[in-house]
Automatic annotation (TrEMBL):
Protein name (database record): M48 family metalloprotease
Enzyme Commission number, as recorded: 3.4.24.-
UniProt KW keywords: Hydrolase, Metal-binding, Metalloprotease, Protease, Signal, Zinc
Gene Ontology MF term list: metal ion binding; metalloendopeptidase activity
GO biological process: proteolysis involved in protein catabolic process
PANTHER family in the cross-refs: METALLOENDOPEPTIDASE OMA1, METALLOENDOPEPTIDASE OMA1, MITOCHONDRIAL
Length: 490
């Protein structure tokens, strides 16, 4: 979470030349070229996407991802020139990958860390290129813009303020998770088509086409583990989230890989794993980190604690907090007047500039911080009444941060009240003690076990589970002496 809201704009442009290709059990129309207007629209969207997803990752892994991505991209029908594609490794702690028209393909460092060989990376990138080749973004864009916010703060937040779109626009600008979901809302059929195209590209490039299936299995295991660590039974995977049955998708991808007739088992695992050493993992301290129920930002020197039963997601521009009894987002920006004016300005953004709601602002001190808060009763597009509360804190002469809290009418802050009162400054020593986690490679020695190696993971919980999922291992899988495995350490 870096501060001010940013708007994410996704490009869509026409690709007019198409061919019909057999993939899986169906026929799919794929584009054979990218138009100049499409390239221009993609180039316009690219810098905004980089801002929203943490920017480019500056480690040595970036060049490697680009080389693999270009190798797989030219297997598609879009172009035969590798330089037609811009492949980006993003500095994001979310398991995600996506592509937009114009030849722009993205994968996050977190998803890369989950992979175990080059073929899995190529399969993920090929899947995303398949979405572009099949023109899926054009078919789903308007629906995604409506639904992107639903996965972030819940359906009750759409169309607040008597049907005005200002609130939805604010959330779309202000929270990274919502904009990430904007890239994910494909139909089940479209996801299957992209899987099949990705498998076809793998085979054409000489990779083991079964790699996409093994990657999907790792993703399913990570998603299930994330649900357990967050105390939830229904966590939505960040990549390819439209599939409620990951096991059937894994089986389907394996069946279609076998149907290609390819005999290749090329994975290039040693080279890939060697490139992972030192890769940043989980939150980047520059954007704040989540440690259990605490959010800690060493640069801003602030901290707060989410109540039990609520989950947090750290985005590039905001932190989302969600639970059964309410949702919130935390962000901040410049203080260009009084703290009262700051709170009032947030409500103006909610209602739209033509409406200036009259909100009574109250002042308080919370853990030594000047605080101001106001609340209002608003309606969503279905007519349901909501309590919307803004609580702002002054951290310096020109900086402030705030929570935007939404609960059912009559609840006020509800179960989120303890979080509001937990906001506090971090000490210099606390801030200095927050270190980044990184992927490290360990050579298996005689006597090493999964449990003994897992004990070196930089977590206080689920160490063995995290180790097994990170390495794509089953609970009883043997370790090969002399082989390399991944751990996460400070």
């Amino acid at each position: 979470m870096t501060g001010k809201y940013r708007k994410l704009w996704l490009a869509s442009a026409l690709v007019t030349v198409c061919v019909t290709t057999s993939v899986g059990d169906a026929q799919v129309s794929t584009a054979t070229s990218m138009s100049q207007s499409e390239r221009a629209e993609g180039a316009k969207a690219h810098p905004e996407l980089l801002k929203e997803f943490g920017g480019l990752y500056n480690g040595p892994q970036a060049a490697y991802v680009t080389s693999v991505g270009r190798r797989i991209a030219v297997q598609s029908s879009l172009s035969s020139q590798q330089n037609d594609f811009t492949i980006s490794l993003l500095n994001s702690s979310v398991n995600n990958a996506f592509a937009i028209p114009g030849g722009y393909v993205y994968v996050t460092r977190q998803l890369m860390a989950l992979m175990n060989d080059e073929a899995e990376l190529a399969g993920v990138l090929g899947h995303e290129i398949g979405h572009v080749a099949a023109q899926h973004s054009k078919k789903r864009q308007s629906a995604s813009q409506r639904n992107s916010i639903l996965g972030t703060l819940g359906q009750v937040l759409v169309g607040v303020v008597a049907g005005d779109s200002g609130f939805g626009q604010l959330l779309q600008k202000g929270i990274g998770t919502g904009t990430q979901l904007l890239t994910l809302k494909f139909s089940r059929t479209q996801e299957y088509e992209a899987d099949d195209l990705g498998i076809r590209y793998l085979a054409k490039a000489g990779y083991d086409p079964k790699a996409l299936s093994s990657m999907l299995a790792s993703l399913a295991a990570q998603t299930e583990l994330d649900a357990r660590t967050r105390g939830s039974n229904n966590a939505v995977p960040e990549w390819a989230s439209t599939h409620p049955d990951p096991a059937s998708r894994v089986r389907r991808a394996l069946t279609n890989a076998q149907a290609t007739g390819s005999k290749s088992n090329y994975r290039n695992a040693a080279t890939f794993v060697g490139n992972l050493d030192g890769l940043l993992y989980d939150d980047d301290p520059k954007e704040g980190v989540i440690r259990g129920r605490e959010f800690l930002h060493p640069l801003f020197k602030l901290k707060f604690t989410a109540p039990t039963g609520f989950t947090m997601q750290n985005g590039t521009t905001a932190v989302s907090i969600a639970g059964q009894s309410g949702q919130a987002q935390f962000s901040g920006g410049s203080l260009n007047g009084s703290l009262d004016d700051y709170v009032q300005d947030v409500f103006v953004q909610l209602a739209g500039q033509d409406r200036r709601p009259s909100v009574s602002i109250q002042r308080n001190m919370i853990n030594g911080l000047p605080a101001a808060y106001g609340s209002g009763r608003m309606s969503n597009s279905q007519g349901a009444q909501l309590d919307v509360t803004v609580v702002a804190y002054q951290f310096g002469p020109s900086s402030a941060y705030h929570f935007l809290v939404v609960t059912p009418a009559g609840q006020g802050l509800g179960g989120l009240s303890p979080m509001i009162n937990s906001m506090a400054r971090m000490s210099d020593s606390e801030a200095a003690g927050i270190k980044p986690r990184r992927v490290r490679l360990v050579t298996v020695r005689p006597g090493d076990t999964a449990r003994s190696l897992a004990s070196r993971m930089a977590y206080s919980d689920y160490q063995l589970d995290r180790f097994l999922v990170l390495n794509g291992l089953g609970p009883n899988a043997p370790l090969k002496v002399g082989g390399r495995v991944k751990i996460v350490s400070y």
